[in-house]
Amino acid sequence: MAQIRIALAQIDTCVGDLEGNAEKTLEYAHRAARQHAQVVVFPEMTLTGYPIEDLALRRTFRKAAWDKANWLATELEADGLGDLYVVVGTVGTDHASDKPRNRLVVLHDGVVWAGYDKHFLPNYGVFDEFRIFSPGDHSTVVEVDGVRLGFAICEDIWQDGGPVAELAGRGIDVLVTMNGSPYEEGKTHTRFDLAVRRAREVSAPVVYVNQVGGQDDLVFDGGSFTVDADGTLLQRSPMFVEDLGLFDFDTDAKRQTTGVIAPAPDKDEEVYTACVLGLKDYMRKNHFSGVCLGLSGGIDSALVAAMAADACGGANVWGISMPSMYSSDGSKDDAADLAANIGAHYDIQPIEPLFVAYQNQLHLEGVAAENLQARIRGVIVMAYSNSKGVLALATGNKSELACGYSTIYGDAVGGYAPIKDLLKTRVWELARWRNEACAHGMGIGGLHIVGNEAGEHGKPAPNDIIIPVNSITKAPSAELRPGQKDSDSLPEYALLDQVLAAYIEHAHGRADLLADGFDEKTVDTVMRLVDRAEWKRRQYPLGPKVTALAFGRDRRLPVTSAFRE
């Protein structure tokens, strides 16, 4: 009979921050030891952060990362944790080719005790590992107090064969996998089903430790878990927070003991939280403490402002109302109410005098005159960003980006775009959810997210509402000419978003879209708009990826593409 406790250290790392990542690893190793764990497992590429991309090709960085792993092993022993098996990720080197390797190391007794290199190197979607890394070629089993642990790294369990198939024949007791699996809506079920298949393949429990936190345009949702050999869920960490989960394994038990299973969040809460965590970590890792954005009174800027307040506090949000001669009183009132609800700074900078000054020289008409208004606003937003040292936020949604319904160097300016992967109809859904959550006690900054592991409820909003109802219910308009509505230039969003989801996220061509039941005129209009707007999207700020196919990372339509089938 053998028993061990395995700790699942779900932490937020930062690419390139060897010192900070090592210190956090040391902190969580101490926490695991205090919980009487014999093994503590961290996410993929723990010490280097993930994904490190071409930083892995820098030889001096690889050496520094290896030195940091050795330092950590020595420090653990010096702190009295030499008996603990600490499983961390880092970057190694294939000395035959001098290429980097995505490596797992086991630290024990003051040394790097064992190692394992990732076999399958993904080069689809957001991943570019096949170009960067050299693949591993052997499996690794480490015995801890009579328990045989087999190891894998992320993609190794997604592909059939390879190390998992090899481990199935080596009599392991537990399959331990460290992961850097980015978030996308609905992916948690896919991960779980995969782990169940692998558990049955190796006839052993699977420990799945995932990274948490935002890194550039990726969000890692955590949600680490353990399944038994028969696929039963034994333990699950909460999503979007740092956590230390525990799994007790007994070689004699037919079924392992169930531990703490965190509840799964509501689907709207999940997506909203992913967007906020992406923004919050982008700010923190790029050393911004505040944001600025234009507040028009519309739903997009209102949702972005609410997300910003949840990410950094309303007092660190600068909302700028920039009314023109076409701005309605209702929109101006909605913008002011939104700023008051979240406790943001609120400045009014009318653009009509600037617009008149430009027109006295340029004499623009039509779309050029409309876009001039947006570009004046962009200049003001960037002036606030520069003068106050805050991050400028772009407020465009995925529907607008898809169709080119934004002004380059105008409303497209900014350093980060929190809702760029949300279709317009999804924006409305999340706005309604945020108001409902506020009414049920989730104040400003009350999301269960990295930095709020204690679950503080946040600052209450006036009248328990964040986003003005009128911003949600009124017809969307850019208000760049009298009586303008988005539907003047685009199909109604309820229809548009269905076509966009099929064309972009499900890769349906023209024939597929017609077979889906969409009318020919709508299909041709939407496809033409999407294809012609690629040059704009290439210049749009990055933002959190939350769908299966996001602009920028995933969708690379050639600018001059004529392929339409």
UniProtKB/TrEMBL annotation:
Function noted in UniProt: Catalyzes the ATP-dependent amidation of deamido-NAD to form NAD. Uses L-glutamine as a nitrogen source.
Binding site for L-glutamine: Y124, S181, K187
Active site per database record: E44, K118, C154
Residues engaged in binding ATP: G294, L295, S296, G297, G298, I299, D300, S301, T395
Native source organism of the sequence: Bifidobacterium thermacidophilum
Alphabetical keyword list: ATP-binding, Ligase, NAD, Nucleotide-binding
GO MF annotations in UniProt: NAD+ synthase (glutamine-hydrolyzing) activity
Organism lineage string: Bacteria, Bacillati, Actinomycetota, Actinomycetes, Bifidobacteriales
UniProt pathway annotation: Cofactor biosynthesis; NAD(+) biosynthesis; NAD(+) from deamido-NAD(+) (L-Gln route): step 1/1
Binding site for deamido-NAD(+): N371, E400, K536
Family designation: In the C-terminal section; belongs to the NAD synthetase family. Belongs to the NAD synthetase family.
Domain CN hydrolase: start-end pairs: 4-251
EC number: 6.3.5.1
Catalytic activity: deamido-NAD(+) + L-glutamine + ATP + H2O = L-glutamate + AMP + diphosphate + NAD(+) + H(+)
This protein's name: Glutamine-dependent NAD(+) synthetase
Superkingdom to which the source organism belongs: Bacteria
Alphabetical list of Pfam families matching this protein: CN_hydrolase, NAD_synthase
Chain's gene name: nadE
